[in-house]
Design brief:
187 residues
Amino acid sequence: MYKIRLVWIWLLVPFVLQAQDVDVYQWKTNDNFVFPQRPAAMSFDEFELLSTRLRMQDMFGAALIPGYVHFKVKEKKKAWWLVGIRSAGYLGVGYLSLRNKSTLNILFNPFAKYTDKNYASDAIVAYLSAFLIAGTFLYDWFHGRWILEHKQNKIRYKYSPVLQVSRLSFAGSAGLYSVSAGIRLSF
């Protein structure tokens, strides 16, 4: 019965991830940076990065898929490193499962060391695996978010409207009945 429930949970996970997204925090920046016209020099990748937002749904994706956020912000080399490192963590959990050891039992049961002679080696594998899995998730989320904001700011800076004074003139006229002075700026 337990295995049937577990299979149903794994089958329903993709549907839950596609559910309506919830924002827990407010956005302080204008994510939809509007240009009067799209600059001709802007590539599609820059445009796509500029309109990318990380939401809670992406956090859940990063928890299940290693390197999810780095793939999304087009940092493929770091993303593949994260896939490899998290896979090593999963291999550690798989190794303990093959030895009929529960990773959670080793991590959260302090009395297991008194009943098992191989507890020390199993504990090292369990703690290292948990660290690799949790560490890659946190790195993917926080560093990927920082990289995205950094890239977006670089694109905004590159294409931001720049104040260029094309002509500056000090014009004035003097006539028989009137005197006028003025400054004219043209952009």
